[in-house]
């Protein structure tokens, strides 16, 4: 009887990836820094009302949204972790108007780290899963001082992306471009342990995730697509669909990575000046990298998400991601509409 193989920790996984020249030592260390920060955030989130950090911070973020105390705390934890880790990256965050360059006293890092420190934070006060989303880009060469403009790279330029979901268990889901893998936090050991290699999104699905209360504000192709979903097997899709909406992107995407589905946050007329609710750089792009590495697809409804060339650090996009065939169907409704418009 062969001895059970010892659990593979995140550190051991990253060291093996570095040994195979799939990541640099600095990128390995940067991901470890993020993981360490996520462990601290997990402790803070897990304390709930006992931690004295629930509720609003009384401040607003760059999007003009009320910040939760845990939004601010999580952002600080990630920035401090990057500092303690030697400022391996310049940072940009949903909670900061502009990027945080690397202090002059430090060598210019090779990476740019973007994150939504606590996505879904409106769910904290009702004890629903929330998460940290992060994306890593290369810092352009010979840049004396990093500015917001250096972060404006398409999703295809990402070298790593992931999220940490603070749910019944704390899990980090990560890609460095060689598949999407899940690590579960062993609280007794204090380390993330590999629990699912090469996650796969089923190409077809019978489950969609959307906030239906916005239906009257959607554009025509979106109305047509969802009407056909709701028509079920009596309608043109010929099958019944189920619906889920947690209103925490990390939790909805984790479900889709685990059992398939399509997640949609489309453009709506509530605020026509915004191209959608979700942000391209630190929500849509990292989630798209993870989903594509797991065999899924991600689009803004008309083009591949990761090919969008960003124009602003905090720009928003419509999001259609998940089971490849279903995303392609939703996109077809939009492109057919445009052709006949
Ligand atoms: P709504 C959370 O605020 C978030 O940014 C995502 O995590 C989530 O998918 C979405 O917004 C929920 O939006 O309009 O349903 O509250």
Automatic annotation (TrEMBL):
It catalyses: beta-D-fructose 1,6-bisphosphate + H2O = beta-D-fructose 6-phosphate + phosphate. Binds 2 magnesium ions per subunit. SUPFAM superfamilies: Carbohydrate phosphatase. It comes from the Bacteria. Mg(2+) 1 binds at residues 94, 116, 118. Its EC number is 3.1.3.11. Residues 201-333 form the Fructose-1-6-bisphosphatase class 1 C-terminal domain. Its main location: cytoplasm. It is found in: Cytoplasm. Substrate binds at residues 119-122, 211, 277. Keywords: Carbohydrate metabolism, Cytoplasm, Hydrolase, Magnesium, Metal-binding. Its cofactor is Mg(2+). CDD domains: FBPase. Mg(2+) 2 binds at residues 116, 119, 283. Residues 9-197 form the Fructose-1-6-bisphosphatase class I N-terminal domain. GO terms for molecular function: fructose 1,6-bisphosphate 1-phosphatase activity. Homotetramer. HAMAP family: FBPase_class1. Belongs to the FBPase class 1 family. This is Fructose-1,6-bisphosphatase class 1. It comes from Lysobacter brunescens.
